[in-house]
Amino acid sequence: MKQFLKYTFLIFCLGTVVSCGGDDDICESGEGTPRMKVKFRNAGGQLRTVDSLYLRVDYGTRIVNFGKTTNADSLLIPLRVDDFEYTDLYFKTRRNNPESKVRVNYTTTSSYVSPGCGIKKTYQNVNSQLVTPGVVTSAENGQNFIENEDKTNLFLTF
User: Fold this and answer.
1) Residues whose CB falls within 8 Å of the CB of residue 20, separated by 6 or more in sequence, listed in order
2) CB-based contact 158:93 (threshold 8 Å)
3) What is the per-residue pLDDT across 69-98, written as a single tens digit (0 to 9) for each?
4) H or E segment and range at residue 37
5) Alpha-carbon torsion 89, 92, 98, 102, what sign?
6) What are the pLDDT digits (tens) for 61-70?
7) Residue 4 phi/psi, 5° resolution?
8) Cβ contacts of residue 68 below 8 Å, gap of 6+?
9) Which of 111, 113, 110, 109 is nearest to 28 (CA)?
10) What share of the chain has pLDDT > 90, as a percent?
11) pLDDT for 99-144, tens place per residue?
12) What are the angstrom distances between the C-alpha of 140 and each of 29, 69, 124, 136, 144?
C-alpha cells in the first residue's frame, strides 16, 4: 500500500510539472499593444540625438513620469488603452526647463490575441499637435496608424 501511495504521489507531481506553463502563458513576440515611436530632428530637419530628455505621460487617472533618458535618437511611448481619444505627452530637456505639451489624437480598435496576451489595441488616424511650445518647437506627423513598433509616428523638432 505504501508503494502504491509513493507512485501515485510521484505521478501526480510529474503531471503537475508537465501541465504547468504553455505557449499562451507569456505574451512575447510583440503580440501586445504597440507603443508609439517618436524620433527627433534639429531645426534643419535632420534626425538628431537628444543628450537628455524628460518625459511625462498623462494616462487620465495619473501622470506617469518616465524620468530622464540620455543620448536618445528615438523613444517608444505607450499610449492610453482606455478608449479615450487622445494622450498628452510632456517633454523637456532639463529638469528646470518649462515643458512642451504634445497631444496625440487617435481612434482605437481592439482584437483578442491569446489568453496570455489578452486584448491588443491598435491605433488609427494618429495625428499630433504641439499644444504648448517650449524646447519642442514643432511636431510633425509620421505614419498615421500604429500596428507595430517599426515605423515612426511622430517627429519632434528641438
Assistant:
1) none
2) yes
3) 999 999 999 999 998 999 999 999 999 999
4) strand 36-41
5) negative
6) 999 999 999 9
7) -65, -45
8) 52, 53, 54, 95
9) 113
10) 67
11) 999 999 999 999 988 887 888 899 999 999 999 999 999 999 999 9
12) 30, 21, 16, 11, 11
Distance CA 150, CA 146 (A): 9
Record the cell numbers describing residue 2, joined without a space: 505504501
At 55, list the grid cell.
518625459
Going 85 to 104 to 73 to 150, the CA torsion angle's sign is positive
Verdict on whether the full-model pTM lies above 0.70: yes
Largest interatomic CA distance in the chain:
84
As given in the structure block, the three cell numbers for residue 96 are 528646470
Distance CA 143, CA 56 (A): 22
